[in-house]
Amino acid sequence: MTFVVQGLPVARGIAIGRAVLVASSRVEVVHDFIEPEQVLAELARLRTARDAVAAELQRMQREMPKDAPPELTALLDVHLLLLQDETIGAGVRQWITQRHYNAEWALVTQLEVLVRQFDEMQDEYLRERKADLEQVVERVLRRLKGVAPLAAMAAPRARAQDEPLVLVAHDLSPADMLQFKKSVFAGFVTDVGGKTSHTAIVARSMDIPAVVGARAASDLVRQDDWVIIDGDAGVMIVDPTPIIRDEYAYKQRQGELERGRLARLAHTPAVTLDGERVELLANIEQPDDAAAALAVGAVGVGLFRSEFLFMGRSGKLPDEEEQYQAYRRAAEAMHGMPVTIRTIDIGADKPLDDRRESTHLNPALGLRAIRWSLSEPAMFLTQLRALLRAAAHGQVHILIPMLAHASEIRQTLELLAQARAQIDARGQVHGAVKLGAMIEVPAAALSVKMFLRHFDFLSIGTNDLTQYTLAIDRADDAVAHLYDPLHPAVLQLVAGTIAAARAQGKGVTVCGEMAGDPQMTRLLLGMGLRSFSMHPSQILTVKQELLRADAGQLVPWAQAVLASDEPAALLAPHDP
Ligand code: PEP
Ligand code: MG
Q1: Nearest CA to 140 among 108, 102, 169, 117?
Q2: Does residue 272 line the site of ligand 1, with CB under 6 A?
Q3: Would 29 be classed as within a structural domain?
Q4: Spatial distance between the Cα atoms of 313 and 429, rounded to a whole number of angstroms
Q5: Final residue of a domain: which of 238, 262, 286?
Q6: Which of 12, 35, 179, 429 has the fewest CB atoms within 10 Å, measured from its CB?
Q7: CB 167 within 8 A of CB 227
Q8: 410 and 440 fall within a common domain
Q9: 18-41 mean pLDDT
């Protein structure tokens, strides 16, 4: 039966496809599509792991002390039976052979199907076997970790069937998202997350329709259900009737036509009606994203979120050489245009490792970004050396996240000088860099002059600036309705920062999601902003807005918006 699930729109467009549910598991599970020719090897890998668990359980039975409670022996019997149960095994094999999931993913998918069936059982004894099943699956998953996975996994590739697939999950870490970036999904939905959570940001960079904060979506949808994702309205339609599907297929085609029209703007200069030049830069997560930036005519990278190089690596961080190569690749790919690389911004909703629960009480206010870097000086120096060396191959700017204190500025400058000296001592080359500060904590916006004294340019992170000004966790969908970049307090901090930088002739960019929101383009132009950095998928839409705008006329209007109690009411559609 058709039903609709409401969430938050994060990436535009329509996706129609079959649901692929990604179950969360207590054990870290890698979700990979395998190549068709790897199916047999993957089945063998699963068999090896299963046999090892069976042997382990049998050994435990043999070594059981004589006086052990009989329930324990019975429990091991149940686990062995479950392990060898054909309906479980057949289901798992089907996900591998037909969908080309890797063994771990197939296992948790089948577990989820069975857990649902257990939940519906009347018999309490049987219902309780669910926990046994979960334990057995967990044992096999742990074993699989020790059974070498196939080398050539996770390539972008075709599916068993030609039907498009849509990803539905309770939550996806940014590291998960990077993994899926290489694959085939036409869209995705998560139960949790806010509009500017990092998961949503990566979704936008994938340029596929997405909805987050859809609460119980992953409980309501079943594997293989047909679903429609409307990324503009923030809804998911499950099991649509043919009429509804046709209607959305039509909307999808219209969207594609519109994109085709916008594509023609890629090489049109970004100049307003009254001749003001505007710099449109790209936000990227890895060097390969530079291609998407160039394709839409970005004139540089305004924010390379370097932390994505560090995530999901089970604690083994990239060394100086690996980082240097990555930064150099990004710099070279942009052919001499500026590439602003932000030093690692780990913490809050971007944990270093997948699914590792934070032990901090309030991670968004804790040891993240520059605070983390300064607490790990050896790691930070490694990154700074890699950046300085990469600067010999292009126009690299270094950007420091989440600064607030004079002492943090001082320590950062000292470490940068130290990194230079270390490279000199080795006789290696490094290039000149411009150094920028992110203004994303209200304290920084309110003491912006201190930042202008020490930095070459500023970049306003409106996502965090909104979060910290309004005390709203950007990743928490329960307070997502209060997350408002148009709150007068946020706008005043943004406008004040732009004005202060301009007064001193220093560069200022907005690199938060606000820069890529076409509804905000005129307001930011009216505040005097001339440099916007956003995910490449937004650049052409924003360019279209500014090509139609008269920057001079927007100044008094922006002043009125800033003075208003409810700025949102003054924005489109009747703005000048
Ligand atoms: C921001 O906070 O606006 C920003 C650009 O940084 P991030 O979204 O990575 O925290
Ligand atoms: Mg930020």
Answers
A1: 108
A2: no
A3: no
A4: 29
A5: 262
A6: 429
A7: no
A8: yes
A9: 79
Using most ligand atoms within 8 A of CB, pick from 178, 305, 308 the residue to mutate for ligand 1.
305
* Ligand 1 atom 6, closest CA: 461
User: Does 270 fall in a domain?
Assistant: no
Instruction: Write the residue with the smallest CA distance to atom 10 of ligand 1.
Output: 464
Which active-site residues does the annotation give? Answer: 198, 511
Q: Which residue has the higher pLDDT, 453 or 199?
A: 453
* Residues recorded for the chain: 576
Q: Is residue 28 part of a domain?
A: no
Whole-angstrom distance, CA of residue 457 vs CA of residue 501 = 8
Which amino acid does the sequence have at 504? Answer: Q
Q: What does the longest C-alpha to C-alpha distance in the chain come to?
A: 90
11 lies in which domain range?
A: 3-23+149-262
Are residue 71 and residue 157 in the same domain, yes or no? no
For ligand 1, atom 3, the nearest C-alpha belongs to: 461
Q: What is the CATH number of the domain that holds 106?
A: 1.10.274.10
Does residue 253 share a domain with residue 157? Answer: yes
Other CB atoms within 10 Å distance of the CB of residue 459 = 30
Nearest ligand 1 atom to alpha carbon 440? 2
Question: Residue 392 pLDDT > 60, yes or no?
Answer: yes
Q: Which ligand is nearest the CA of 305, by number?
A: 1
b/e burial code for range 62-76 (CB count within 10 A of at least 16 → b): eeeeeeeeeeeeeeb
- CB 464 near ligand 1, within 6 Å: yes
Q: Tokens 């005097």 appear where?
A: 528
CA of 197 to the centre of ligand 1 (A): 9
Token couple for 174: 């940014």
Ligand nearest to the CA of residue 510, numbered in listed order:
1
Same domain, 245 and 286: no
Which of 448, 457, 440 is CA-nearest to residue 509? 457
Q: Which residue has the higher pLDDT, 422 or 195?
A: 422
CB atoms within 10 A of CB 93: 18
Return the residue whose CA atom lies nearest to atom 8 of ligand 1: 463
Provide the whole-model pTM: 0.76
Report residue 160's pLDDT band, with 50, 70 and 90 as the boundaries.
Answer: very low
- Of 229, 262, 295, at which residue does a domain stop? 262
Tell me which ligand sits closest to the C-alpha of residue 196: 1
